[in-house]
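Methods — Computational structure assignment.
A single polypeptide chain was analysed. Its primary sequence is given first, followed by the predicted tertiary structure written as structure tokens.
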Amino acid sequence: MNASAKLILGEYQRTLDERFRLSVPTEMCDLLTGEGQDCVLSKERTGCLGLWNAGLWNEKMRQGIELIEKKIETGRLEGRVAEVQKLARMLSARHRTIQLAGRGRLVLPEGFREFLGVEPGGEIVIVGAGLCVELWNPKEWLLYQESQVTEFHDIFNELSQ
């Protein structure tokens, strides 16, 4: 978990400017970056980008990749070359290290803009997702909420006991 151990929560509406810039709320930036660390922007799901603390993201990826490499080395992934290649392709194109500029501004890089599906002047929903901040295409956010709303109480009760 990030250094503050506090969940990043909240929902905000923002407009993407003509240069593909966006301001992330300060309270989210403070929890996300801590002492001015880099962030990682990742393609999470259709119409959704994740903004992660770079240290947390890199450690999570390092551990996972190390485990996969050990499985390859010991032959435990024999016959699964296509799956390993598919995973490697997605890892290669899935994330990018970025820095937040003053006032929590970030520029959405090419490739990530298209994945999000929001044009300049369009609205973006910024959502605190516990360990990261998510940037949503509003239509996709509504669909996601509609598909998950009935599970809220069960998840909350399970995780908070």
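Note: Strands lie at 11-15, 21-23, 39-45, 48-53, 95-98, 105-107, 123-128, 133-136.
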